[in-house]
Amino acid sequence: MSGVVWHPSGWWLGPGEALPRGARVVPGGVNFAVASATADRVSLVLLSAEDGADLAEIPFPRAWRVGDVWTMTVLGLDPRRVDYAYRADGPDGVRNRFDPGALLLDPCGDLVAGGERWGERPRRLRSRILDDDFDWGADRRPGIPAEDLVIYEVHLRGFTRDPSSGVRAPGTYAGFREKIPHLARLGVNAVELLPVAEFDETANVLSAPEDGRPLLNYWGYDPVSFRAPKAGYAADASGAGAAREFKELVRDLHAHGIEVILDVVFNHTAEGDHRGPALSWRGLDGATYYLLAPGGQDCNYSGTGNTVDANHPVVREYLLDCLRHWVTEYHVDGFRFDLASVLTRDGSGAPLENPPLPEALAHDPVLAGCRLIAEPWDAAGLYQVGSFPHHGRWQEWNGRYRDALRRFLVGREHSAGELATRLVGSPDLYGSRGTTASVNFVTCHDGFTLADWAAYDRKHNEANGEQGRDGPGDEASWNCGVEGPTDDAAVLRLRRRQVRNALALLLVSHGVPMLSAGDEFGRTQRGNSNAYCHDGPLTWLDWNTAEDNADLVEFVRRCVAFRRAHPVLRRRAHPDGAVPDGAALPPVSWHGARPFEPDWSATSTLVAVLLHEPPDDAVYVLANSGADTREVELAAAPPGTRWHGFADTAAAVAAAPVGAEEPLADQRNVELPPHSVRVLVAR
Fold first, then answer.
1. Looking at the record, which segments are called Disordered (predicted)?
2. Residues 6+ apart with CB under 8 A from 474
3. pTM of the full structure
4. Which one of 333, 375, 403, 452 is the catalytic residue?
5. N or C: which end of the chain has fewer CB within 10 A?
6. pLDDT tens digits, 86-121
């Protein structure tokens, strides 16, 4: 290497390469490249990988700078023994907030050290060089057609942290692997992991009101890195342990036919507003990475103090590169974008008609085939359900599906007609895109669990330290007569029925269903609708509950299997009412107490739909959200078939084994008990 120089700290240095950015092992040493358009001075800080102690601080020679990328190669550096960070300084100004004393993480760093012990305040966060040779074996991405997906949203730590999980390393990537058989038995074929990119769980200023203990940032929606897997989720976080264990988890999920979707938080960072710490982006080039008002104040469209300027050309390419990294290095299958509407705003914060970032993601060749799922709203009121810029690729969390199904099941007026639209894939929202653009859900990490939705009329968030003011407002919930825990057998029966109603409708709807972890066995957060700050029994899955509610787990398993067995439930095109040539029935027909007489009135509590796919795949769904039993005259089954009962949420055995459904004794009429759903199949 020409131009090699000696630095007094004891290292030989040479010019570096500007791409790829980050730290990369090269012959004879490590190449460092970090971009900053506004800094006058940038230094590389070498730190002990063992304890983070200072080893050397080496300024980047300006002569080796390539454009806005500061580069150099440190010769003889052992990546297993040395971590690193940066320091930067530059001109003062309303848009610059340099802190030359701060140790800054590499925005393109592959690992983060210093926060390996969950729940302990990090010790000198620093970047770590990823230099491993993982054996992926015969790993293949499952490549599941969108219409066949059943997504399971889950917090990685909470899935196994409770002692009842029985795993060897609770709350870790390794522990999660031991519970994959549960997912496989349930029939889900994609996990959507709440953030696993590095975050500081101790970054919460609030305290528990009952005892003053610090509350945590448990969910992880406050990133300190966009590329590094969370070290505190590793059973052995030494060296590249977090990367290795996450790869093992992905490989094992793939081996079971389960895709891995990451919840990525690109709308803001943990640096917060002007009161927050300089961790990485702000200290290097805050004027590039963040949306700032003319006076230099942080724009806050994320509700957390700052907003990433996602459509700035430099930031756009950076975010693309982060996603490519997760795909190429970790074999992940897709991404769910938190508060994705932020990603459609321009440098002034105004919504763009055709924002560059969503388009670039949709057409990037490395990301081709990956799931791109938008949470199509943000914290400043930009609501884009049905209108998020999709470019033929993006799917959306359908918040209107959740609201419609909940409102109908609790008996709200003007709800029957909208539920009908949601059951067939929301053609009013996704008419040109098909049913799979809609990710349907009843619950997610935000808001009540499904059991709590049927047990509470109002949120109970006092333990969050904000006097109960935080969290969603109206959740369209109903406590079934008693607020919270009760021994009333009738109330408990009704709650169980409501939970089954929601799950049954979700799993027979057109679109992509998403379950929230633990809903399949009645997980409760005791009415807390915003449990982001709790790391304990409130948020950990209690696997004893899965045993206690084995009948509910089996109900969900049978509903998933029923969906898989019937293509009529998984059509990509929205069904219409026109009878195809040679068919006995239209793709969809609506009914009421009598065939072909639906009730769309404001007070209707009955929705009945017959879904048909030639020659004879037919499913009849009947839902009664009223307090009275309804007598329903059935439409005739396709010629040569009879109606068989698959599910009856009011029955002791709420669903039959798929293929073993019993024929109805009366093929002309059925009785729908109060607050119940029946699903029939033609055989």
1. 462-481
2. none
3. 0.98
4. 375
5. N
6. 999 999 876 788 999 999 999 999 999 999 999 999
